[in-house]
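Trying the structure run again after the queue cleared.
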Amino acid sequence: MKRPAVIALASGAIVLLVGGLGGWPLGPWKSWERGLENQLVRWRGPRQPPRSVMVVAIDDATLQQGAWFEGHGAMPDWARGIGTLPWPRASYGQLASRLLEAGADAVALNVVFEGSSSRGFADDTALARSLASQRGKVALAAEMLEPQDAQVGSGLTLVRPERFMTPVGGSGALGLTNTLPAQAGDPDRHPEAYGRRLLPANGLKPQPSLAATLLQLGGRSSRQNDPAMALDFYGPEGSFTRLSAWEVLDPARWSRHPLRGSLKNALVVVGPVVSQGEAGNPTPFGNLSGLELLATATANSLAGDGLAPWPTTAPWRALLALAPVLLVAALGLWRGGIGWRLALVGAALVLVVTAGFFALQRSHRWLPLLAPASGLVVLGLLYGGDAYLQEERERRRLRRTFERYVAPSVVAEILSDPKAADGILRGRVLRVTVLFSDLKGFTQLTRQRTLDGQSELLVSQLNEYLGEMVEVITAHGGTVDKFIGDAVMAVFGSPVSRGEQQEALAAVRCARAMREALERLNLGWAQRDIEPLGNGVGLASGDVVVGQIGSPRRLDFTVIGDTVNLASRLEGLTRTLEVPVLFDQVTADLVRDELAPQSKGSPPVKGMGPTPVFTLPESPPASPPPAPGG
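Done. Tokens:
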């Protein structure tokens, strides 16, 4: 299967997977998604809760204040029994009266008064009297108890303050403190979800939450569909305007308290918040007390800023999740290139996260975020992997191409920039030195050995000769261009040049080394009774066109131009002038300072007229070959 088809299929699979996870997330995926959403909440930071919702906390300071009075003997009436929990019920009544007298619209007591007070009948009577004086202004807590090892909704028992219901105005002043049991990956649901959804689903009568009852008593109504909402937390513990309970109970302190005026038209939640620790409710801002959760639920209902998913139905959430991934996949197939594709992925990721953040901040809505973000990341990895494999294939192709012509060190230098290497293959003009070497009398030798039935010996000797010549050329940093029968064509300065003069010097020294190598071969052949060979070498320097030339079915990396033709004809002229090496005026000028070339006049060269030619001294000093690429 072709690469584009594989990319298309993989992209399609990613899009479908994103849609499925966006609309119908699995268990672990839901937990991860909730973790990402909680992180967005933390990035958003704390918010200012409505000032009309206040907290009066029975906190450590209140208990310490009560304990202090108990230790010093002079015990005022308001401080009796407040140093330990449970509190006297009379103190709750006194507290609610003080708050309502200061202008609060309603008060919720987040304590379930089950049965009779442990402090006696008088304690219950005092609370009942306080509630009667503030009829319809105090919401009392009730609780659904679940038996151990039983399913939710099975065998539930409603625990409520029976003794105080009638004076307060009936069961309408009750509210459940229960919340939905926490499930992995689920958000913190508004308490109304327990009494309005879970109980009826299990065949029980619906019950309002304590937050809903507080709103009702305060003459307010919720601005959202509470049972369908999740809590949108305002910050860590203490985000709401908070009073310590002892400050309200102490008449002297309360008469001059700076927050007393803030209670005008407020909804107040009252309850203990001591020693929450790990027993608190986990939220993005840390553990919160049950009293802070009650205040949060009340404030969310009042402001209509609870959290809800958008879209609300699974199919539409799936479509919204897959939309950005589908768009990026389509544009990535329309136009290749790793830069374009990764830019698309990056832009889409920024857009998705930004949209999710602003939807949370401005509209209090959860957009499907983890599925599209993960899909885009996987799509980016797919594109990156494809580009890497494509580059590796291209590098292997270039390596196979160039290793046929140049030394491994030169190949490594070329492949350090694959784009430049591709440009080399397409064609360019370079200033090089071209070398041609051909065996003398090889045509007659071929005919004779064919007649003598020694074709195998001929091929073996030729391969031995050509192999040695290639080694010499490679050692001097040349590129073997091609073999033409027994002739060898090499280029110095292509595809990578060390400089015009250095390439010319390397080419002339290579020509001399080729003659020396042939002499060594002839000595070995003589010992094996094999007829020796002779060769001539022609060199020329100048501009050539370098690139892959040929048909689509067969391409060769080669050079063309007048410099190539001149080198070939100078090689042929070595027989006429009876010298082993000939090179042109340009080459002679480039090597003059190093090798002292000897002029051989200006004999006519076919198609070029009289041409100055030069050769090497008969006994040149030995010099080691330069390292390729150096």
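Residues 167-172, 620-624 have pLDDT under 50 and may be disordered. Worth checking whether this holds up in the mutant runs.
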